[in-house]
Amino acid sequence: MRILDILSPSSIRAPLHATEKHAALDELVDLLAQNGLCPDPEAVKKAVWERESQRSTGIGEGLAIPHGKCAAMPGLVLAIGKPRVPLEFGSIDKKPVQLVILLVSPPEKKDEHIQALGKISKIMTSPEFRQRAYAAQNATELYGLFREAES
Questions:
Q1: Residue 120 near residue 88, CB atoms below 8 Å
Q2: Which residue in 25, 79, 113, 133 has the fewest CB atoms around it within 10 Å?
């Protein structure tokens, strides 16, 4: 699995318009819908928010990886948002989030979903990569960083 197989430059928003967690999640789902990658944005928002309400996906070090499974989805997709200013996300380290990586998939793609989460986590483990991602000025720059990480 490659991140670039499920991420397109048009599914990255830098900066996000949202200034709080719930609005950021909605904005990323709406971005997927605008790109024709999410046929039922309301169902996806519900699935993502239900998952988020169980336990925050703010994993620390300025990163959140919200995710959800929704039967309305035809396949795995990613959306990435970089807030203008770090967002409070209920992260485990209590630090605000500087990058939000949303993963959505249909329920039957459980293995692929887990692989994608693992791939994202592996890339984002690098402090150097995180800092470069947090400093990115636009969607093109962010996409280029992920392309570079996978080459």
A1: no
A2: 113
- In tens, the pLDDT along 91-142 reads 999 999 999 999 999 999 999 999 999 999 999 999 999 999 999 999 999 9
Token readout for 135 is: 């400093």
Closest CA relative to residue 104, chosen from 29, 8, 14, 21:
29
* Torsion sign, CA atoms 59, 147, 135, 76: negative
What integer best gives the mean pLDDT of the chain? 95
Q: Strand, helix or coil at 19?
A: coil
Instruction: Tell me the backbone φ, ψ of residue 75, rounded to 5 degrees.
Output: -170, -175
**Tokens representing 59?**
């994993």
pLDDT reading at 151 higher than 90: no
The one-letter amino acid at 115: Q
Instruction: Indicate the pairing of strand 12-16 with strand 77-83.
Output: parallel
Which residues, in sequence order, are bridge partners of residue 128? Answer: none
Burial status of residue 102 (CB atoms within 10 A of its CB: 0-12, 13-18, 19 or more): buried
Distance CA 99, CA 120 (A): 12
Instruction: Give whole-number Cα distances, 52 to 21, 55, 57, 107, 149, in Å.
Output: 10, 5, 6, 16, 27
Residues paired with residue 58 on neighbouring β-strands, in sequence order: 64
